[in-house]
Amino acid sequence: MSQVLGNNELNSANETLFQIIGGQLRKYWNEAESYQKLLYFTGFLLLASAIFHTVVLIVTGGTLKGDVSFRKAISFGEAFGLTAISLAWFLTFVPKKRVIWWILSSIYAVATFVEVFLVTMQVWRGVPSHFNFTTPFDAAVFSLMGASISLHAPLILGVLLCSVFFLKAPSIFKWAITSGLLLLVIALVFGIVMIINSSNTIGLFGQMKVPHALALHAAQVLPLLALLVSFTNFSETKRTRIVIVGILSYSTFVGITAFQAFNGHPMIDLSQPILLIFLTSAALLGITFLWVLNGLRLK
To answer: Is residue 225 within a helix (H) or strand (E), and if so which, with residue range?
Structure first.
């Protein structure tokens, strides 16, 4: 008989895997605190914006390149939306300090909405959103964006600290959530580096946006791996090992792309040893997910 999240027995041997997963997700929603639902709502709203601007991009025949492409509205809506949803889910496993989490979640929700709104507004105006000091208004918009980003930190750091010391969940979730949040903090640091550098590029070819984006999405990729593993029949030891391999592989991607960026090298210009490490990590991460997906079977 399969186990869900390592402990719960199936209610019925006839349940499909999708019913089990769907039931667990509904349980997360039904048991969510109001501050979590605020973050969920914010995340879904931003994802809706990303979908809308994807349609706009297709209908208008726009380009994916350039600082005024609708791609920016899409990528910011998607990234900030998924991050808000991830943080809301992480709060499931930490102590229910309602006043504290309400304050931090409210600040985060407003800040992340403002950030995406300002980026989207500039795209519709046909001007760059970042490092744009052409007019006093554009400079003020960019400064406000920097202020709103800084207001993301309190909730992220608060959840990170709780995940390290007070997380009430199986070890696979502790590993994945804590690692994902650590990489999310690193993504914020990369963002600060770009602001200080007044550019997304270091030197001629060092694209800081790549490690920034990879580190940002660790908060989705790694917990997703842990969530999928929780629906397998693997032993707890095996589950933990799989998640750790995923963490190490994904962290290696972030490390290699950051190394390339900080040294001003193109992402495709890898030395043979680094290329070997990169390919090995890619293979391990791919095999890990395939192994887990193959294990999603009811016995």
So the answer is: helix 209-229
Mean pLDDT in residue range 134-153: 93
pTM of the model: 0.90
CB neighbourhood size of 1 (10 A):
8
Q: How much is the pLDDT for 19?
A: 84
> Residue 181: which of 165, 196, 163 has the closest Cα?
163
**Spatial distance between the Cα atoms of 2 and 13, rounded to a whole number of angstroms:** 9
Average per-residue pLDDT for the chain: 90
39-88 pLDDT, tens digit per residue, is: 999 999 999 999 999 999 999 988 888 888 999 999 999 999 999 999 99
Using alpha carbons, select from 89, 84, 81 the residue that is nearest to residue 169: 89
Between 14-28, 137-151, 188-202, the lowest mean confidence (pLDDT) is in: 14-28
Dihedral pair phi/psi, residue 22, rounded to 5°: -60, -40
Long-range CB pairs of 185-192 (<8 Å, 24+ gap) are 185/156, 185/157, 185/160, 186/215, 186/254, 187/211, 187/212, 187/213, 187/215, 187/216, 187/218, 188/149, 188/152, 188/153, 188/156, 190/215, 190/258, 191/149
User: What average pLDDT does the segment 112-116 reach?
Assistant: 96
3-state SS class at 37 = helix
Residue 49 CA to residue 111 CA, distance in Å, equals: 16
* CA separation for the pair 38, 109 (Å, rounded): 7
- The Cα 194–Cα 264 span in angstroms is 13
Q: What angle do CA 55, 212, 200 make, to 5 degrees?
A: 85
